[in-house]
Specification:
alpha/beta; binds pyridoxal-5'-phosphate; 13 strands; four-stranded mixed sheet
Length: 371
């Protein structure tokens, strides 16, 4: 007979999910109530406020999509791209490639800005493309490329988009909670994130936020949004505000308790403190890795503190090292993705996995395993 599943106790230092704090796990074990229960609706309003806090926005359309980061990505593109729309898509890793897929699947034309993996999006290349084409509707880019560990200058890219009168669609799956992110101040129009990275909440939920300009585009389309589930005009009947909510779908009630608790913890710490904590422990990890003779893929000026892409030394079987870390230390680090598969390890310092204890364990385990 199949019996209950008891997962091993791992330490998660890969590209996500990160360790979920016991407070969050215990919040998820609280009694399930109805997704239209007045008490649940009050909690939904608190989640919206807490997400607005984390994203630094007053956008009324700020909510968690009941599906993973990929659905948040799709929600942005499906609502904001119409057939024939020209969208500049920046690709410097795996996730920019998915943005291109989204634009094309919804009938748009993706004008690509390609940059070498491990380097930030080139502002100059984006500017040149904006100059060369009329009627560009949106600029889409990944703030923190999880596949390489590089940070792009979201503020400068959004400023550029504003200068040319187009919307911005920003992937903040790995950036939210780990590095500075200012939705309103930078003028971001549509943003999506994930709960399993620097928020350290359970995976499978995707916070999104739309500016007034993005909402205007989404509600004045020539064509119907080709997804029923992700149509913001419909979802907002449930997530909109006030006690009067229309049933749209059955929300993942207990997972949302978890997100609520994780966001309460972020608020207790203070978002700016969380950014500083990620920077601090990254410095410690970097010092340790360098002592072991390991080097980074990304130059220091564009490196993400929460996702450390480290070169696998010559002659080392990278998969075997990861397997031994898991077996001997219950420690998960990530493999390379796409072009970087087999060449790098991705060491995450995200949310609850960004502590002194994590840094010490990782360096100690790597030292013993590599020698
Ligand atoms: N975008 C980025 C930058 C990511 O790192 C990820 C996941 O790692 C996604 C999108 C997709 O998120 P999910 O796996 O939650 O669907």
């Amino acid at each position: 007979m199949i019996t209950s599943f008891h997962p091993p106790q791992r330490t998660l230092m890969g590209p996500g999910p990160s360790d979920v704090h016991p407070r969050v796990l215990s919040a998820m074990a609280r009694p399930t109530i109805g997704h239209l229960d007045p008490a649940f609706i009050d909690m939904m309003d608190e989640i919206k406020k807490l997400l607005q806090y984390a994203l630094r926005t007053d956008n009324p359309l700020t909510m968690p999509i009941s599906a993973p980061g990929s659905a948040g990505m799709e929600a942005c593109f499906v609502n904001l791209v119409e057939p024939g729309d020209k969208v500049i898509v920046c690709q410097n890793g795996v996730f920019g490639g998915r943005m291109k897929e989204n634009v094309e699947r919804f009938g748009g034309e993706a004008l690509m800005v390609q940059d070498t993996w491990g380097t930030p999006v080139s502002i100059e290349k984006v500017r040149a493309l904006m100059e060369a084409h009329d009627g560009i509707k949106a600029l889409a880019f990944v703030h923190a490329e999880t596949s390489t560990g590089v940070r792009s200058d979201a503020q400068a890219l959004c400023r550029l988009a504003r200068d040319y009168g187009c919307l911005t669609i920003v992937d903040a799956v790995t950036s939210l909670g780990g590095i500075e992110l200012e939705v309103d101040q930078w003028g971001i129009d549509a943003i999506y994130s994930g709960t399993q990275k620097c928020l350290s909440a359970p995976p499978g939920i995707s916070p999104v936020s739309f500016s007034e300009r993005a909402l205007e585009k989404a509600s004045n389309r020539r064509t119907r949004v080709p997804s029923w589930f992700l149509d913001t005009n419909l979802v907002m009947g449930y997530w909109g505000g006030g006690q009067k909510r229309a049933y749209h779908h059955t929300a993942p009630v207990n997972a949302l308790y978890g997100l609520h608790e994780a966001l309460v913890m972020l608020q207790e710490e203070g978002i700016e403190h969380a950014w500083k904590r990620h920077a601090l422990h990254h410095e410690a990890l970097k010092a340790g890795l360098e002592t072991l003779g390991l080097s980074f893929t990304v130059t220091a000026d564009a490196r993400l503190p929460q996702l450390n892409s480290v070169q696998v030394p010559e002659g080392v079987d990278e998969a075997q090292i990861r397997a031994r870390l898991l077996e001997n230390y219950n420690l998960e680090i990530g493999a390379g993705l796409g072009e970087l598969a087999g060449k790098v390890w991705r060491i995450g310092l995200m949310g609850s996995s960004c502590t002194r204890r994590h840094v010490m364990l990782c360096i100690d385990a790597l030292e013993n395993t590599l020698s």
